[in-house]
Write a structure and sequence with these properties.
The structure holds 2 protein chains of 2 kinds.
Chain A: H1 2-35, H2 40-46, H3 58-65, H4 72-103, H5 109-120, H6 128-137, H7 145-148, H8 156-166, H9 170-178, H10 183-194, H11 196-212, H12 215-220, H13 229-236, H14 246-279
Chain B: H1 8-34, E1 37-38, E2 46-47, H2 51-58, H3 63-97, H4 105-113, H5 120-130, H6 137-142, H7 154-180, H8 184-192, H9 197-208, H10 210-225, H11 229-234, H12 246-255, H13 262-291
Antiparallel strand pairs in B: 1-2
Chain lengths: 283, 292
């Protein structure tokens, strides 16, 4: 009797805590969304309201039609091109590289791998300024390549894929090799299908990371037409001086949020599945 | 007998090695070299030895000295307050979610996880409205007229709120999985011994998940030292440079519209990098020793 009472008290406390936290977490998004449907005149005359008096789409119409000061759609297009290209290249590079480090035999293979891994832990703040110089020398400032390529050099995803590959039985490659298959055939026909789950997870996080990257695009893009949406929204912060524009501002923020939200809705299990990989580190 | 050289590994690991050299190894080495030079990013760097470090660390009259000390101080304030919150809050959420009586777990988890997928600039625009003086939810709810982003300590509070809102999801998922992996019979035998939920948390849950705790602590701390977007977007470093963190000074010195001062900025970056390395090593050492 006493036991069940105790459990139910802690159960209600847990619920209470989760409901309060969830409410605080979701209110800003709802408030931003609702404000994006308030008309300019209503914001000026009625001031603060949680929900609009009249729901109107005029802010979104303005965002789509008047692109002179803030080309939101253009920015979102730039971001999509960058994030999709980056993701595709990440998946190719990490799977091929991890195959080399886990399935092929060459001298100094593991020493090489762990040396690169150790170097990659060096704080990235130190290479920020020279990275800009390199991008400048390649002629990539204000081009999508500035954001697509440098991230391919990372070691974290290659480490994860290599770990994953270790669990695929070697007998599979050996028998294929006896049948005369080349390394590339083993990679593409046996390994690639087997590591699909980890590649999906790495791809999703690469997309989200690329879409949301902030410091780097703020540095490498000065051309308003060429920048991704995260850097573009920084330029809009000044609009807070002008209350007429608040609805448009919220509309722009909401539009910038939609792609990663959609990704979460459709691939939720992979985002949460990453927990198995992460908890793998407790080893 | 000529031994046949197998070149195919080069095709598999070679492309990435080139990328690694060009975008990680070279810039890291060059960043250290540049910290000993006077450099404007355009011309060739001129070797000045330890001058940049002397100026930054000891020259009381120099703006760079003030910027470094102030930026480092503000970065430490951010790390010191945000990191404990980014560990404790997701841990509490994970414990509540893993309570066996709680239903709709994935619903709560989704709501708390989703802000982490939102770009910091979009999130900052929305939170700026929440804290807006006239139109914001906070002031209108509590009948105050605080200018949040321009008054201390509220400027810091705004920065911490958006950081926690966007940042607890990842750690929450790691903790949930770890707590879920703790053997259930440990709790059952503790219950028989009469241990309450709080006792159980401190004597079973916490010790069982110490490795994920160390991992998240080290990663969260290293990430927090690179803080940049939240103060830039929410307070523009104000009031009176009270929330200007070191990354903001580094970016301004190297990339602002005037002549670039990349040598000084590189020296600040190296110092920040050294601090990150020392603190990560220290955390890892202390936590590992206490845990065993």
């Amino acid at each position: 009797m006493k036991m069940t009472k105790k459990i139910s008290i802690s159960k209600y406390l847990s619920y209470l805590f989760l409901i309060v936290v969830s409410a605080i977490w979701v209110i800003p998004l709802i408030f931003g969304l609702a404000t994006s449907f308030r008309s300019q005149t209503e914001v000026v005359t009625a001031g603060f309201r949680l929900l609009p008096i009249n729901w109107v789409v005029e802010n979104y119409v303005t965002i789509f039609s008047d692109t002179s000061s803030a080309p939101i759609l253009r920015w979102i297009g730039n971001s999509l091109f960058i994030a999709i290209s980056h993701t595709i290249l990440v998946v190719i590079v990490i799977s091929i590289t991890a195959y080399g480090y886990s399935r092929m035999k060459f001298k100094g293979r593991d020493v090489m791998f762990f040396t690169l891994l150790a170097i990659s832990f060096f704080p990235s703040v130190v290479n920020l300024i020279p990275s800009y110089k390199i991008i400048d020398m390649l002629g990539w400032v204000n081009t999508p390549w500035a954001m697509i390529v440098p991230g391919l050099a990372g070691m974290g995803n290659i480490f994860l894929v290599r770990q994953f590959m270790k669990n695929i039985p070697r007998e599979l490659d050996e028998s294929a090799r006896v049948d005369g298959a080349s390394d590339f055939q083993i990679y593409s026909r046996i390994i690639l299908p087997a590591i699909k789950p980890i590649l999906i997870v790495c791809g999703l996080f690469s997309f989200v990371g690329s879409w949301n990257d902030f410091l780097w695009p703020v540095i490498v893009y000065t051309d308003v037409e060429k920048m991704p949406v995260t850097a573009g929204l920084l330029l809009l912060q000044d609009i807070y001086g002008n209350y007429r524009m608040i609805g448009q501002l919220m509309g722009s923020a909401i539009l910038a949020i939609i792609p990663t939200m959609l990704l979460f809705v459709f691939a939720q299990k992979y985002f949460v599945q990453s927990l198995d990989l992460n908890s793998g580190i407790k080893g | 007998m000529k031994k046949k050289m197998n070149l195919s590994p080069i095709f598999f690991v070679g492309p990435h090695i080139i990328l690694f050299i060009v975008f990680i190894l070279l810039p890291s080495l060059y960043g250290i070299y540049a910290s000993f030079t006077q450099w404007n990013l355009v011309g060739d760097p001129v070797w000045v030895g330890l001058d940049n470090y002397k100026t930054i660390l000891f020259d009381q009259d120099s703006t760079f000295h003030y910027q470094f000390i102030n930026g480092m101080k503000n970065t430490f304030i951010f790390v010191g307050i945000s990191v404990p919150l980014m560990i404790i809050i997701p841990l509490l959420i994970a414990v509540a979610l893993e309570h066996k009586g709680v239903k709709m777990k994935s619903f709560f988890q989704s709501i708390i996880y989703v802000p982490g997928l939102i770009s910091i600039s979009a999130a900052a625009l929305i939170w700026s409205l929440i804290f807006n003086k006239q139109l914001g939810v906070v002031n209108n709810l509590f009948g105050s007229d605080t200018v949040w982003s321009a008054t201390q300590p509220f400027a810091w509070i705004v920065i911490f709120v958006i950081t926690i809102w966007a940042g607890v999801g990842g750690n929450m998922i790691i903790y949930r999985a770890s707590i879920n992996g703790v053997p259930k019979d440990l709790y059952e035998s503790a219950q028989i011994d009469g241990a309450g939920p709080i006792r159980q948390f401190f004597s079973i849950t916490l010790p069982s998940i110490r490795f994920p705790l160390i991992y998240t602590l080290v990663m969260t701390t290293a990430g927090a030292f690179n803080v940049f977007a939240q103060p830039l977007m929410m307070t523009a470093g104000g009031p009176r440079q009270g929330t200007t963190v070191l990354m903001m000074y580094i970016r301004d010195l190297a990339f602002s519209s005037g002549e670039s001062i990349a040598g000084i900025a590189s020296a600040m970056a190296v110092l920040l990098g050294v601090v990150i390395l020392i603190i990560s090593a220290l955390q890892y050492y202390l936590m590992n020793r206490n845990a065993s």
